[in-house]
Amino acid sequence: MTITQLKYVLAVDTYRHFAEAAESCFVTQPTLSMQINKLEKELDVLIFDRSKHPVEPTDIGKQIIKQARVTIQEAQRIEEMVKGSKGVIAGEFRLGIIPTVSTNLLPRFLKVVMEKYPEIELKIEELQTEQIIEKLDRGQIDAGILATPLDKQDIIEKPLYYEPFMAYVPQGHRLEGEEFVLHSELNLNDMLLLKNGHCFRDSVINLCSSAFPEGSSQHKSLEFQSGNFETLIRLANSGFGMTLLPYLMAVDLSEEERQYIKPIEHPQPTREISIIYSKVQLKLSIIELLAEQIKSQLPPKLLKPQDQNVVNPTID
To answer: Which pLDDT does position 287 carry in this prediction?
Structure first.
């Protein structure tokens, strides 16, 4: 039994397809298949049921896969210990980040990190919250940046900043003349929302839920759900309602569009943004430097919770 064989097993479990698993491991399919067959013969069990499409691990295979992850993590721990003893901060680091954070956060810190630490190979992927949690559990990413708290037993959350929600109220809207927006004035009836899967959408719906008591006959003349804030802003400017934006998105708007930004009454609805990682994560030095660099590029007032109402993300 070798570490390489276990890595091949994990690749097949990830992709549920031998050819795709081989491609991800940069080997030919016959090489990968031969090594897994060799391991199965050595253990005298079948790890994968090849009669199913996509392939699935057998019952004993699931147990082997679980232990294989632990074994590979412990082997990697040795490598990280040696690097740490030499003061080396290098290697591949896989980061997942939710879309409603990535657009306005990555440009703030990414270039600085790459210039200061050129030996770190960052691989960043936009993912929904559920996908980040799943990939952390499978060891497919090293860390994630998303809205917390999650309250997941095997995940450590390291808060980075606290981001208020801002109201985008275009010209001609019923709230145009207000200096700030009351909680009671947030109404789903004219609120443009992100599509399902975005935790920011769920937070906005929770804030506006008081506008829709059970049995209400209110309905929207237009129901449009977008995957990005830019589309929501354009629709708002065209007279289709208002929307809520995270603070970093709001301050990055053009000067013309910033005039339509209004604060929400205290306590301000706010989301806590954290970097999260598994309790068995090995690359803690990279996580620490990412957290430090992110915080150094943000307005100081976002680094500590003020008079705010932290809105919990909705996690299934």
So the answer is: 93
Measured N-to-C along each axis, helices 3-15 and 59-85 cross at an angle, to the nearest 10 degrees, of 120
Residue (of 303, 275, 297) closest to 287 by Cα position: 275
pLDDT computed for residue 209 by the predictor? 63
Does one domain contain both 156 and 280? yes
Beta-strand ranges (E) seen in 115-242 are: 120-126, 143-148, 155-168, 193-194, 225-226
Indicate the residue among 84, 107, 129 that finishes a domain. Answer: 84
Residue 139 lies in a domain: yes
Residue 184, amino acid = S
User: Rg (Cα) of the chain, in Å, rounded?
Assistant: 23
Q: Does residue 286 share a domain with residue 216?
A: no
> Between β-strands 268-278 and 308-310, what pairing exists: parallel, antiparallel or unpaired?
parallel
Residue 33 has pLDDT above 80, yes or no: yes
pLDDT interval class at 316 (50, 70, 90): very low
Q: Would 315 be classed as within a structural domain?
A: no
SS3 labels along 228-276: CHHHHHHHHHCCCCEEEEEHHHHHCCCHHHHCCEECECCCEEEEEEEEE
User: What mean pLDDT do residues 4-16 have?
Assistant: 93
Strand partners, 225: 193
Q: Could you tell me if residue 245 is left (phi over 0), alpha (psi between -120 and 50 degrees) or otherwise beta?
A: beta
Give residue 18's pLDDT.
95
- Cα separation of 9 and 153, whole Å? 26
Are the C-beta atoms of residues 194 and 165 closer than 8 Å to each other? no
Quick one: DSSP state of residue 17? S
Q: Are residues 199 and 213 in the same domain?
A: yes
Q: Based on the fold, state whether residues 42 and 188 are members of the same structural domain.
A: no
- Structural domain including 31 reads 3-84
- Domain shared by 214 and 283, yes or no: no
